[in-house]
Structures are given as structure tokens and as C-alpha cells.
Amino acid sequence: MLLALHEIWPQAPLYTSVYDPKKAKWAEVFNVIPSWLQYIPFAKNHHQLLSLLTPYAFTKFDLSQYELVISITSAEAKTLSLPKKVKHICYCLTPTRYLWSQKANYETLGLKGRILKISSPFSRMLDFNTVTKINKIISISTYIKQQVYKYYLRESDVIFPPVEVISEKEAIKPLINNYYLVVSRLVSYKRIDLAIKACEKLHRKLVVVGTGEEEASLKKLAGKYTVFVGHLTERELAGYYMHCKALLFPGLEDFGITPLEAQAYSKPVIAYGRGGVLDTIKDKETGLFFHNQNDMGLIKAIIEFEKTTFDSKKCKINSEKFSKTNFKRQFKQYIEKYINEN
Question: What are the pLDDT digits (tens) for 97-120?
Fold first, then answer.
């Protein structure tokens, strides 16, 4: 997303809270300007611990020389202190999860959760007041448009993020075959446990791509039908997409890039029917929705999927609507229209 915006406005600098050049090689094309948090020794690798300071850090950026600032954020990057002459458009990935939709879950996370619970009333008020000062909000999906209104009482427009995949010719074919696929960070809200339980009970092969804090517990849950392959190169991942039966997507996501990646490789998706997938998957055409977010709901969907025929061409055509070219055109037109009107 950031690289696509860089192609539209290559001279625009990128302001951020903390930045690790070794882990973000893609950002070398930007003039990256980090906040003062950059100089705290552990900040690059443990920036989550600084969430109470991050809003303050963003207010300290002097952006008065610009006419327009675009914040791309799910949390603190929108808390900018701008003079009235500088317009602010926020591309909202989601209302800050730990303050709103996932507040209860985050507050159970040990010491960090207890600190969040104490600070939450002040942080929510700051977050809400911040949004009232933003000139325009763009949401990444219809679902996030609804969430923005629910938590911030603000209307917003929708521009879908871009999806890009490498060519099928570059893909490396995996050694396994006849499998379902999960591509995800292994964290609790992604509900990878449902995919494992469903495939184990159905005796269906499942390949899990990704790493994360839930990896150990998910491996304990898995049996002989589940294979964890960790982090893959783009060429390896393309191969797994191309040769799977379908992508399993059991979590509730704000948008969800992997269902579009699967469709770009002509593969259907079996997904929990809420959130961003309602924009990106055509039920019974490029995928199949299940509506009870439990292993039995997914099992029924897999059984139904195996009785249904899907047109691979329709999957690929559907993914093309979310191309980088379309994203750049829509975003550029939106910004130019706003500037001309103001």
C-alpha cells in the first residue's frame, strides 16, 4: 500500500513512530523520518510497549510546510497536531483495536493488559477527539466504513487496498498435494485453530503458512493431517497457492489480503462470512461462506465445497478488480478531487 502511494507521490516523505531499516528494506525508496521514540534503545523491536507514548510522539512532528497529510493507520499515526491550513486525510485500516473492537481481549494480556485497562478511558477519549479533527476518512472496506461510524460517528469513503502477486511462472511447486491452505500470522483472532480442528476431523490435509505467538499451541492441537511450513519466500508461497484445493479463512478480518491472493492464483476461498471478505469474495462463485464461527461451521462448508464446482477464471477475474493500478487511479482521483474542492 505504501509503495503504491509512493509511486503516485515519489517525493513525499514517510513519517513514522519507529523504523528498523534492516527489517524494512522495502522502505529504502522513501525519505523515512522517525519520531523521537526511535532513540529509545528497545523501541525498534518492542514498540508495542510504547503505545501510551506513541500518540504524543506523532503530535511532535512539524508538518506545517505541507498542504496535505495522508495518515495510514490502525492506531496512533492519526494523532497529528496540524495547523488549520494543512488538510488531513486518514486512510483508516481499522479503528484502534485495543481501544474499541478488541478492547476486552487486549485487557487480558498480563501486565500490558492491566496498563491498558487503567489508561483506556483517557486513550479512548484522545482517540475519539483526534478523529473529529480529521478532514476526510477513507476506509479499507465496507466493514471498516461501518466500524468507523460505530466508534467514531464519522462517515467515510471506501477505497480497497491493492493486491499484487508474482507470476505463476516464478512459482515453486510444493512436494505435497491435495491439501487445503492457511496463510496467516499465527495469532488468536485469526482462528487458525478452527481450520486445524476441521481438517483433522475430516481427515483432510492442511498446510499452514506463517509464524506467530500461537504457533506452539496450534502445533499441539494439530495431528497427522496438518503441516506447518513456517515463513516462505514469495516463489514458494505462490506454489502453495497454485496447488491447493482452496484457502481456508476462518477469522474476522478488516479486509484480508490472502483471499485475494488465492483468487489471483485462480483458487477459491472458504471464509467466515463477516468482515472484509464480503467485499472480496463472491459467495458460491469465487468462494464459500460459513456463518457459525466454529469448527462444525467450517466442516459443513468444506463438505459443501467438495460437492461444488468453482470456475477458476472467475476467481482470477474477481481478484483483478483489486489491482495496484486500480488502487492508484482511485486514490489519486480521490485526493485530486478533494484538493480541487478545498
Answer: 888 887 778 777 777 778 778 778
